[in-house]
Amino acid sequence: MTATRLSMTIDEDLFRPILTTKGRKTGNPHSVMLRAVKYNEKIYFSRHRPDGDWFKNAVANPEVIIEYKGTKHIGNAKEVKDEELSKKISELKYPGEQRAKEKRVTIEVTLDE
Q: Whole-prediction pTM value?
Protein backbone atom coordinates (compact mmCIF):
# COMPACT_ATOMS: atom_id res chain seq x y z
CA MET A 1 0.00 0.00 0.00
CA THR A 2 1.27 3.44 -0.76
CA ALA A 3 0.46 6.77 0.81
CA THR A 4 2.30 9.93 1.58
CA ARG A 5 3.87 9.86 5.02
CA LEU A 6 2.49 12.94 6.71
CA SER A 7 2.45 14.18 10.25
CA MET A 8 -0.88 13.97 12.00
CA THR A 9 -3.22 16.65 10.72
CA ILE A 10 -6.45 15.18 12.03
CA ASP A 11 -7.91 17.64 14.50
CA GLU A 12 -11.27 16.04 15.26
CA ASP A 13 -11.68 13.68 18.20
CA LEU A 14 -14.55 11.80 16.52
CA PHE A 15 -14.59 11.47 12.73
CA ARG A 16 -15.35 9.13 9.78
CA PRO A 17 -12.25 8.30 7.75
CA ILE A 18 -11.67 5.57 5.21
CA LEU A 19 -9.56 2.74 6.64
CA THR A 20 -7.61 0.69 4.10
CA THR A 21 -6.22 -2.65 5.17
CA LYS A 22 -4.32 -5.33 3.28
CA GLY A 23 -6.34 -8.52 2.80
CA ARG A 24 -5.07 -11.28 5.06
CA LYS A 25 -5.76 -13.92 2.37
CA THR A 26 -5.55 -12.06 -0.95
CA GLY A 27 -3.10 -9.29 -0.09
CA ASN A 28 -5.39 -6.88 -1.93
CA PRO A 29 -6.27 -3.50 -0.40
CA HIS A 30 -9.71 -3.28 1.22
CA SER A 31 -11.26 0.07 2.16
CA VAL A 32 -14.17 0.86 4.45
CA MET A 33 -15.52 4.07 5.99
CA LEU A 34 -15.73 3.77 9.77
CA ARG A 35 -16.33 5.94 12.80
CA ALA A 36 -12.98 6.62 14.48
CA VAL A 37 -11.77 8.19 17.70
CA LYS A 38 -8.60 10.25 18.13
CA TYR A 39 -7.33 9.88 21.70
CA ASN A 40 -3.83 10.57 23.06
CA GLU A 41 -2.52 11.17 19.51
CA LYS A 42 -3.60 7.72 18.33
CA ILE A 43 -6.53 6.68 16.15
CA TYR A 44 -8.94 3.98 17.34
CA PHE A 45 -11.47 1.82 15.52
CA SER A 46 -13.75 -0.60 17.33
CA ARG A 47 -16.52 -3.07 16.67
CA HIS A 48 -18.80 -5.34 18.66
CA ARG A 49 -17.16 -8.62 17.58
CA PRO A 50 -13.79 -9.55 16.04
CA ASP A 51 -15.41 -11.07 12.93
CA GLY A 52 -15.16 -8.05 10.62
CA ASP A 53 -12.76 -8.28 7.68
CA TRP A 54 -11.17 -4.89 8.39
CA PHE A 55 -10.46 -5.98 11.98
CA LYS A 56 -8.99 -9.36 10.98
CA ASN A 57 -6.95 -7.73 8.19
CA ALA A 58 -5.48 -5.08 10.51
CA VAL A 59 -4.46 -7.72 13.04
CA ALA A 60 -2.85 -9.90 10.34
CA ASN A 61 -1.24 -7.03 8.38
CA PRO A 62 -0.67 -4.04 10.66
CA GLU A 63 0.28 -1.46 8.01
CA VAL A 64 -2.89 0.51 7.29
CA ILE A 65 -3.87 3.72 5.53
CA ILE A 66 -6.30 6.23 7.00
CA GLU A 67 -7.77 8.65 4.48
CA TYR A 68 -9.48 11.75 5.79
CA LYS A 69 -10.35 15.01 4.06
CA GLY A 70 -8.40 13.96 0.96
CA THR A 71 -5.18 13.19 2.83
CA LYS A 72 -3.79 9.69 3.32
CA HIS A 73 -1.84 8.75 6.42
CA ILE A 74 0.15 5.54 6.85
CA GLY A 75 -0.05 3.91 10.23
CA ASN A 76 0.57 0.74 12.15
CA ALA A 77 -2.34 -1.04 13.79
CA LYS A 78 -2.45 -3.30 16.80
CA GLU A 79 -5.24 -4.88 18.77
CA VAL A 80 -5.92 -3.19 22.10
CA LYS A 81 -5.73 -5.74 24.92
CA ASP A 82 -6.37 -3.20 27.71
CA GLU A 83 -10.08 -3.51 28.52
CA GLU A 84 -10.17 -0.14 30.31
CA LEU A 85 -8.77 1.60 27.22
CA SER A 86 -11.31 -0.18 24.99
CA LYS A 87 -14.07 0.95 27.35
CA LYS A 88 -12.82 4.56 27.20
CA ILE A 89 -12.77 4.45 23.38
CA SER A 90 -16.37 3.17 23.32
CA GLU A 91 -17.44 6.02 25.61
CA LEU A 92 -15.76 8.55 23.31
CA LYS A 93 -17.10 6.89 20.16
CA TYR A 94 -20.71 6.68 21.37
CA PRO A 95 -21.16 9.58 23.82
CA GLY A 96 -24.38 9.24 25.76
CA GLU A 97 -25.47 6.12 23.84
CA GLN A 98 -26.32 2.77 25.40
CA ARG A 99 -23.88 0.95 23.08
CA ALA A 100 -21.00 2.81 24.74
CA LYS A 101 -21.36 0.26 27.53
CA GLU A 102 -21.04 -2.79 25.24
CA LYS A 103 -17.84 -4.79 25.27
CA ARG A 104 -15.98 -4.15 22.00
CA VAL A 105 -12.77 -5.13 20.25
CA THR A 106 -10.51 -2.21 19.42
CA ILE A 107 -7.66 -1.45 17.03
CA GLU A 108 -5.15 1.28 17.84
CA VAL A 109 -3.36 2.98 14.94
CA THR A 110 -0.14 4.91 15.42
CA LEU A 111 0.40 7.19 12.44
CA ASP A 112 3.89 7.41 10.93
CA GLU A 113 5.55 10.78 11.20
A: 0.89
